[in-house]
Amino acid sequence: MTETEPPAILTVPAEARSFQGDRAGIVSRVLANAIDLAILVVVLGAGYLGWSAWLFLRRGASFRFPTVTYQGTYVVGAIVLTLLFTVAWSTTGRSYGDRLLGLRVIGRRGDRLGLAAAFVRAVLCVAFPPLLFWAIVDRRSVQDLVLRTAVIYDWAEQPRSSPPPDPS
Amino acid sequence: MQAVANAVAVEATRRAIDLVLDQLDLTQLVLDHVDINRIVASVDLNEVVEQLDVDAIVGRVDLDGVAARIDVDTVADRLDIERVIARLDLAKLSLEVIERIDLPEIIRTSTGTVASESVRVVRMQTFGADRAISGLVNRMLGRSTTGGSADRGDLDATGD
Prior knowledge:
The complex is a heterodimer of chains A (about 170) and B (about 160). Chain A is mostly helical and about 170 residues long. Chain A is built from six helices and two strands; from the N terminus they run αααβαααβ. Chain A has helices at about 25-60, 70-90, 95-100, 115-125, 135-140, 140-145, and strands spanning about 105, 150-155. In chain A, strands 1-2 form a two-stranded antiparallel sheet. The termini of chain A are far apart. Chain B has helices spanning about 1-25, 25-35, 35-40, 45-50, 55-60, 65-70, 70-80, 80-85, 90-100, 105-115, 115-140. The termini of chain B are far apart. The interface of A and B includes residues 31 and 108 of A.
């Protein structure tokens, strides 16, 4: 018996299949970002606790919880979020928030972003979050327009097998 | 003169034979006195079959017409499906099917795709909200809202 590819089985619910691959709207994208922000808070909190534990082990009785400034928290948070986004978009194409909302970030050919593109997009998204709201008008944020990326609905676990062609 | 006599004799003989044969049941006679089975056994049927042009014979048969006259339901009714199934090694077959379709992968992807009913509901609701806002903005900007192609992820389709 010749080996052939097993038949593809659609794992996306029937009611959601019609809009898979469409650009995601502002509500989905804001919610996904909110979830990512919540995760960032958890990561920063865990980092703070870990740092405190390390200081406690070092200082013993003279230990005091380290004080953190708003500016310091913002800078560290921005760096961590940039790293999280970069890794997520260049590997699976989706952050955890994107995953929960069934979204995926793709390049102009419909493929996954490279490391450099993912990093630049992450920097732009973290540095200029309000630019996301251009997606209300165009379903593309300013970052998407600049980098020619898109955020699409993609509920499937694996990326869409046939990315849109690039005639250019 | 002799020819006429011969002709008369032949005609008389033929009539006599016809008369005798009419009185006899030849078929019964053959059945009673001829060992047909022995004759048949002595015939090399393979040789006979080899000389037959089976393709030509089959070609003259209207197979579609024959098939159309078959009552498949009746045939199916007469099938002892349970007996057929009993002869199958269902366990082995099931394992082969599972291996072929990669069931664990399907379960894994399905679970990952729709982690839970609540996730699916949230996704559908946010999609509905996305669509509502897009519709509102499109109406405000006087844009056509027909078709979803403008929302597709294929950036180059929109010249982007």
